[in-house]
Fold each of these.
Amino acid sequence: DAGVIQSPRHEVTEMGQEVTLRCKPISGHNSLFWYRQTMMRGLELLIYFNNNVPIDDSGMPEDRFSAKMPNASFSTLKIQPSEPRDSAVYFCASSSRRLETQYFGPGTRLLVL
Amino acid sequence: GNSVTQMEGPVTLSEEAFLTINCTYTATGYPSLFWYVQYPGEGLQLLLKATKADDKGSNKGFEATYRKETTSFHLEKGSVQVSDSAVYFCALSAPTGGTSYGKLTFGQGTILTVHP
């Protein structure tokens, strides 16, 4: 199994630009999670989906952030417009209801200048 | 609500020393408990888990026992190696049946550095 796949692995952009992060969960998993990790705030859950439906988006910092899961094998996290304080590592994770364990992708390192 | 409190870091040890990282939790019902490890530049990986009281999770020489009476899940290893240097996260999973099923609540992470 390829594991959770995230792209891009690194992104450098300028303030005000749109950023789109992509995630392909493990085949057969029906839950998908987006996290953000920074030195100051640690690991934060932004949003998660069950069976492609957003269940809890209370961690999404503001309206500039949006996430979609159009099908079971793909999700995006979009930041528009981006700001320097959005600089962080963004992780995607997936799990199956039966197993509980979340499997994390390698992360996307985002730097907003 | 659910919460996880981990021992403050960073923790610095010499190779072959004994490791303990404390973790306590607050939760309703009967959560599952996890330890995840994050190596530099990588995502989190499951290290071990326990799903009910008195269960012991173990992997790669690490162990943790689910103690319901003390609401704890302390991580231990008898002899650490330089390659164990990483960040360790304690986490719990919300009880089965709720709408938040599958959501993990993480501790703040503990940085471990092992010197030769």
Amino acid sequence: KQEVTQIPAALSVPEGENLVLNCSFTDSAIYNLQWFRQDPGKGLTSLLLIQSSQREQTSGRLNASLDKSSGRSTLYIAASQPGDSATYLCGPRGGTTDSWGKLQFGAGTQVVVTP
Amino acid sequence: DVKVTQSSRYLVKRTGEKVFLECVQDMDHENMFWYRQDPGLGLRLIYFSYDVKMKEKGDIPEGYSVSREKKERFSLILESASTNQTSMYLCASSPVGGAYEQYFGPGTRLTVT
């Protein structure tokens, strides 16, 4: 069964600093990996989807890298803003017959950006 | 924009009641999912559906059932609610196949007393 770990569990940075959020997973047979943000008491908002054949995916200030063979993905957020304060979750999507299409989630990294 | 809506943001039910959580998506997606989210345990998949009238168990199906009579609607049913089913419930949808993003609804915070 896929195990997903996100480090650190919590992070507090001053506005303007770059954020680095790490995600590791035990089963490298993934189809792709999705990054989400979640505001308190709300649903998940999709940020980026990175396919297993890709090394990087970018959207605005966000950049996600994927090293499938070593079971790691990193989300970089450049020039952080207070509005980036949220919990960030990664979800690798299974690529085997048993796990096909299913996301497994990490516990998330809670980010606070102070003005 | 994809829109996934859930029937209630907050719900309070008594132990033993039958509870229905409704989810509707407006993007003609084939796949729909129900998760629960608990502090320290993260999101866990309860059930999912690849098509109308089709369902498959996720990681924690015990105590739950689902219904998908129409493509756009996926219902989660708690046959006899218990206090350990107090949780945040999240619905998601995606197009067919594994290559596409999952889109989530706003969640239903269910409290069973």
Amino acid sequence: GAVVSQHPSWVICKSGTSVKIECRSLDFQATTMFWYRQFPKQSLMLMATSNEGSKATYEQGVEKDKFLINHASLTLSTLTVTSAHPEDSSFYICSARAVFGRVSYEQYFGPGTRLTVT
Amino acid sequence: SQKIEQNSEALNIQEGKTATLTCNYTNYSPAYLQWYRQDPGRGPVFLLLIRENEKEKRKERLKVTFDTTLKQSLFHITASQPADSATYLCALSGTASKLTFGTGTRLQVTL
């Protein structure tokens, strides 16, 4: 149980275009999803917290107009990188907080999306 | 500012030995501490969670300790196997469940 999927697993796009990444919780409902970015040989950095039905909360230094987050349902959150530039190339990972009849603080992560901007 | 450090970037041990990974933190009073495993090009996989009022937790060959006085957690893998080779991340959170990750330790188990 507690499986999270991401689509696509990798994407190459041209500078200036927008890319949408989907994150789905497959066998549970997730009121809260998180988006992380990971650069090579570095740890995960939280970008934003996405709550179903409300606006996302962005971490300091993350441009909300550049990284658009939509959490339209209890099983789907999307991250859109707008006007992508080469410096946005990174590994983007989402996670979902599973709640099985009680408050739970374990997070289950998707497999990640490798974004390369040329 | 909050800081989470994990011991050495890489740890090499022989198969069958116990691997011990360290996570130290400063300027933080976490309610929860979690350990994750990450393989190259993959997302982290949840392993164990320990609460601030717990001293130790076990799951199969894994054991985690949490010392809030020392501000340290130790993660042990007993009878290590080559398949345990991966990067291990510790992560801290308060009650808001927002995770702050450590730098990670790359474990290599050799035959």
